[in-house]
Write a structure and sequence with these properties.
mainly beta; seven-stranded antiparallel β-sheet; Jelly Rolls; about 55% strand; 1 helix
Length: about 190
């Protein structure tokens, strides 16, 4: 009997598989968009634009999405960054930086939901406030930049707000259209 139990447990151990999957954690839908902020509009205004959010899931941040539109023909990259917060506001240097996205691949005819991935996912904790931001390395310009969609008329995301950075962090009573995705490790036991 013990031998049979041992063989069954050994068999189950070898058939146990770890699967990673990303699920939506926090969001503020693009259906709320009625306004925008220009990313890298000047060298001292809106160099970083995004949203603070209260993580609802403990796991690894794998990607985020923003509702954006290109203006003119900027050249360079755009990427997402994650910041810790203090008193609800972003603070310090980025604690995670996402992969570069060529800014020329962003549409100019209309706003679009664009995904930004973190090749090295960052561990976030449920109940902690973070700031998910967009940044770029293209030359700041009032005529060639990226618009980041937001809701300035009736924002309803209660666990954060829009922040932008020029020479210091500034907030508005707005909500940026965003999505955050977190991976969870699931153990699947095949019998």
């Amino acid at each position: 009997m013990i031998k049979k139990l041992f063989l069954t447990l050994l068999f189950c151990f070898f058939l146990t598989t770890s699967v990673w999957g990303s699920i939506l954690d926090q969001s503020y839908s693009e259906s709320n968009q009625g306004d925008y902020v220009q990313l890298r509009y000047t060298a001292t205004a809106t160099i970083k634009v995004g949203q603070t959010f209260l993580a609802g899931i403990t796991g690894n941040l794998t990607s985020c999405k923003f509702y954006i539109q290109k203006v003119g023909s900027p050249t360079g990259n755009i990427f997402a960054t994650l910041y810790a917060t203090s008193g609800g506001a972003p603070t310090g240097s980025a604690i995670a930086t996402g992969d570069n996205v060529d800014v020329s691949t962003i549409g100019s005819a209309a706003f679009e939901v664009k995904e930004f991935t973190f090749s090295t996912p960052y561990g976030i904790s449920s109940g902690t406030t973070y700031a998910i931001m967009l940044e770029g390395d293209y030359t700041p310009s009032t005529t060639v930049h990226v618009r980041v969609g937001l809701d300035s008329s009736s924002p309803t995301y209660t666990n954060g707000a829009t922040y932008y950075y020029g020479t210091s962090w500034t907030t508005q009573a707005w909500d940026t259209c965003f999505y955050t995705y977190v991976s969870l490790r699931r153990i699947i036991l095949i019998q």
